[in-house]
Design brief:
Nucleotidyltransferase, domain 5; five-stranded mixed β-sheet
Length: about 300
């Protein structure tokens, strides 16, 4: 059983074929076209070229913003300025196949639960720590979107009263102090010669005391936000993806130390925070998972 998968964001359009085991059979990536009709045309064209003799059960697509998955509508894509785009219908008309859509972080959460670190786990939270901080929830084996499709805004949990003003307008959101750009900005203000968060983590590995302190602070703030998520949803695990996840080994001791003082848990079931197994391909696999049958009923 094979599904078509579409993952598009502000800069790249990735299209692939994925089987029922979450294995990517083929994939292609091109720059994201500027117009939505061109995105649909390009995605459908690549799917036709890859399809060959395969029979596809449908097409799943991530969208880079607020999605109404039931209606198949992209409500708002901040990077593009698109609003109320009937994305599922547009893609279905181009491919002749049923189409389901989801916000990209929700698709990542589903992929990790079906095929990654959360295989066999009914309840998990995926957190992307990258340019921003966002979360996708899988509860009882299904994506949980909330009443208006905005569940999982973990990046806007206030974790310090003295932090930077966030893009949302509030001060001290975890996104404003522990996202990749925030870590880099704080390090630069402290005098470190780094271009991005990767540079901060590299210096921390070399033993730089200022960089190590910056990592500890970021881990503390992430731990505060993660503790709130565990207390609210009681998942079996929290999976961290995004660029910052590549340095989770440095952050994790500080995350766990903070969570021990804030998260409510049973001694035999301490909160588990793990790195993504699917990495960069999680969104594409998650898109396919939207139309592939679940391997079990949760």
């Amino acid at each position: 059983m094979i599904a078509g998968a579409v993952d598009f964001g502000g800069t790249k359009l990735m299209v692939g074929l994925v089987d029922e085991h979450g294995k990517i059979i083929e994939q292609r990536t091109v720059p994201t076209p500027k117009e939505p009709t061109d995105v649909a045309d390009s995605a459908a064209s690549m799917l036709r070229e890859m399809k060959g003799d395969h029979t596809l059960v449908g097409v799943g697509s991530t969208v880079p913003g607020l999605a109404d998955s039931r209606a198949g509508v992209l409500r708002y894509a901040p990077a593009h300025g698109w609003r109320d785009l009937p994305w599922a219908q547009m893609l279905s008309e181009q491919t002749g196949l049923p189409v389901r859509i989801a916000n990209d972080v929700n698709a990542c959460a589903l992929a990790e639960q079906r095929f990654g670190a959360g295989r066999g786990v009914a309840d998990l939270i995926w957190v992307t720590v990258s340019t921003g901080v966002g979360a996708g929830l899988v509860l009882n084996g299904r994506i949980f979107e909330g009443a208006h499709g905005i569940a999982g805004e973990i990046g806007h949990i206030v974790v310090t009263e003295h932090g930077q003003t966030c893009g949302c307008g509030h001060k001290g959101c975890v996104e404003s102090v522990a996202s990749g750009p925030a870590i880099a900005r704080r390090a630069q203000l402290a005098g470190l010669d780094v271009a991005d968060a990767t540079g901060v983590f590299a210096l921390a590995r070399q033993g730089n005391d200022v960089a190590r302190w910056m990592v500890a602070e970021a881990g503390k703030y992430l731990g505060r936000a993660f503790a709130v998520a565990f207390n609210l949803f009681d998942p079996e695990m929290l999976v961290v993806g995004g660029g910052v996840a590549r340095s989770l080994d440095l952050l994790l001791p500080h995350i766990e130390k903070t969570m021990r003082g804030r998260a409510i848990s049973l001694p035999e079931h301490p909160p588990r925070v793990v790195a993504t197994e699917l990495g960069y391909e999680a969104a594409l696999v998650g898109a396919a998972a939207l139309v592939l049958p679940a391997p079990y009923s949760a």
